[in-house]
Amino acid sequence: MRKLIIAVTGLPGSGKSVVAEAIASELGAPIYVMGDLVRKEVLRRGLELSYENIERVASELRREMGEAAVAELLSKELEGVDGPVVVDGLRSLKEAELLRSRGWNVVVVAVFSPRRLRAERLQSRGRVGESGDVIRLIEVRDKANIAFGVAEAMALADYMIVNTSTLEDLETEARKTARVIYCEWSKSDSRS
Questions:
Q1: At 186, is the pLDDT very low, low, confident or very high (cuts 50, 70, 90)?
Q2: pTM score above 0.85
Q3: Torsions phi, psi for 108 (to 5 deg)
Q4: What is the rounded distance in angstroms from the CA atom of residue 56 to the CA atom of residue 50?
Q5: CB of 121 within 8 A of CB of 12?
Q6: Distances from the Cα of 93 to the Cαs of 98, 110, 124, 172, in angstroms?
Q7: Closest C-alpha to 69, from 49, 84, 91
Q8: Where are the domains of the chain?
Q9: Is 1 helix (H, G, I), strand (E, B) or coil?
Q10: Other C-beta atoms lying within 10 Å of the C-beta of residue 76
Q11: Which of 95, 146, 148, 168 is the most exposed place for a label (fewest CB within 10 A)?
Q12: CB-CB contact of 158 with 96 (8 Å)
C-alpha cells in the first residue's frame, strides 16, 4: 500500500489545526505538526519559546538545510510509518516535493480565512508568542509564511476549504474532504 500524507496549509489563524484534527479523526490517522518540530529545535538550541525565536530558527533551518528543512525533519519522524498520516502546517511546495521524493503520496489541503477572522482567532487562542498587537503580529507572520511559500502551496493545493463560518461547519467540511481524499487514494492504490 502506498503511503498517504494529507498536508494542511494556510496562513496563521486560518483553522489549519482544526482541519488537521478533523481529518485525522475521520481517518483514524496520526497528526504531525510541523511547527512542533521547529519549536523542538528552538528548545534544543536553548532559546526561549517566543514567536521571534520560532520564526528565526525556522529561517535558520531553511538556510542551513534548504527550503524543505522542516519536511526533512518530518521525514525522519515518519521513518517506518505507514499512511495515512496528517501533517499540520505545510509551508511550501518544496516541502511537499521532498516528502514525495521519500515515497509518500502527498495531497495538499489549503485552509483560507480572511485576515480579520484570523486576527480574532489568534487573539483568543493564547498560544506562546501570540499576544500584544494582533494585527501587527498577523501582518508579520503572514509575510514570513508567504516568504516560506505558503501562498504558492495554497494556490496550487489539491483541495481548498474556506473557513468563514462556524467551527462545526469547518469540521464537517474537513471530514467530508477527508473521505473524498481517502476514497480517491484507495482507488488509485488498488490500481497500483
A1: confident
A2: yes
A3: -100, 130
A4: 10
A5: no
A6: 9, 12, 30, 26
A7: 91
A8: 3-34+83-185
A9: coil
A10: 9
A11: 168
A12: no
Handedness of CA 168, 172, 175, 177 (dihedral sign): negative
What is the Cα–Cα distance from 82 to 1, expressed in whole angstroms? 8
For 81-108, how does the pLDDT look when each residue is reduced to its tens digit (9 = 90+)?
987 999 999 999 999 999 999 999 999 9
Q: What is the mean pLDDT of the chain?
A: 90
**35-39, 60-64, 129-133, 186-190: which has the minimum mean pLDDT?**
129-133
For the domain made up of 3-34+83-185, give the CATH fold.
Rossmann fold (3.40.50)
Helices (DSSP H) in the chain: which residue ranges?
A: 16-27, 34-44, 51-65, 69-77, 93-101, 115-125, 134-148, 150-155, 167-191
CA distance 67 to 169: 34
Residues with Cβ within 8 Å of residue 82, at least 6 apart in sequence: 1, 3
Place of cell 514570513: 144
> What confidence tens digit (pLDDT) does each residue in 3-41 have?
899 999 999 999 999 999 999 999 999 999 999 999 999
Rounded to an integer, what distance in angstroms lies between the CA atom of residue 157 and that of residue 159?
5
